[in-house]
Amino acid sequence: MSDDGEAVVGDRIYEFAGTLRSIAVIWTSSTGIVELGPRDGRDAHAAAITPDGTTVIGSSDATDYESEAPMYRPVPFMWRSDVGFVDIVEALSESGVDLAGWQLGSPQAVSANGRVIVGSATCGGLSSVYRLVLPR
Questions:
Q1: Residue-range definition of the domain harbouring residue 129
Q2: Is residue 2 part of a domain?
Q3: Is the pTM value of this prediction over 0.85?
Q4: Which end of the chain lies in a sparser environment, N or C, as judged by fewer CB atoms within 10 Å?
Q5: Residue 36: exposed, middle, or buried by beta-carbon count in 10 A (0-12, 13-18, 19+)?
Q6: pLDDT reported for residue 17
Q7: Is 72 contained in some domain?
């Protein structure tokens, strides 16, 4: 929840191809509920919001349910009121960041200015954490 209580994040259920899925949402008194994304059949969960309510972090599900032994694989996302939904792993890769060996998981917290995100990860099969500092 934002500092003033005017923005709250959570999830809501929708139907996709006959299956119930969750989608990350933000609610404000001025806009009501706004879906953050993605709405492509993957589940998405909002985890935290900045005090001013402009940046939300969370994770979407990238699990391959067609595999013989599907394992849940969260992919971190960020939503900002000025740019919308951003897949963090995709954005880092497109920016030239080498994530070889790393699997970023669910983000847990975001700084007040929305520039620092921390979360869980694995590297070389070992549990770890990550701290991302985003450019202005």
A1: 7-133
A2: no
A3: yes
A4: C
A5: buried
A6: 86
A7: yes
